[in-house]
Design brief:
By secondary structure, the protein is mainly β. It has strands spanning 2-6, 9-12, 17-24, 33-38, 45-50, 57-59, 67-72, 77-82, 91-97, 100-101, 105-110.
Length: 111
């Protein structure tokens, strides 16, 4: 079971980034999938997930209407499209499936 997140980088405020997470060893369709982030000096917070049971999508208040989570079943990949980025969105982003965590990818948003 392995997850690998990538796609982070440095972007100006108002810009966009798309994070990807590749899964191997299991089928993403069988699990609730999610994205978390951890800013320096802060606890890791959940920002979005897709519920495996009913397909419902949830977003944290801080990212609602700016971020979009998605999944590609054929490729066994999950994504996080981030638009309208703000400096406070900076941090390490992690993909999560059950108890599995991918290596994080750093997002830095400059003002």
């Amino acid at each position: 079971v392995q997850l690998q997140a990538y796609g982070g980088g440095l972007v100006q405020a108002g810009g966009s980034l798309k994070l990807s997470c590749a899964a191997s060893g299991f089928d993403l369709d069988d699990y609730t999938i999610g994205w978390f982030r951890q800013a320096p000096g802060k606890e890791r917070e959940g920002i979005s997930c897709i519920n495996s049971k009913d397909g419902k999508i949830y977003y944290g208040d801080s990212v609602k209407d700016r971020f979009t989570i998605s999944r590609n079943s054929a490729k066994n990949m999950m994504y996080l499209q981030m638009d309208g980025l703000k400096p406070e969105d900076s941090g390490i982003y992690y993909c999560n499936v059950g108890s599995a965590w991918g290596r994080g990818t750093l997002v830095t948003v400059s003002s």
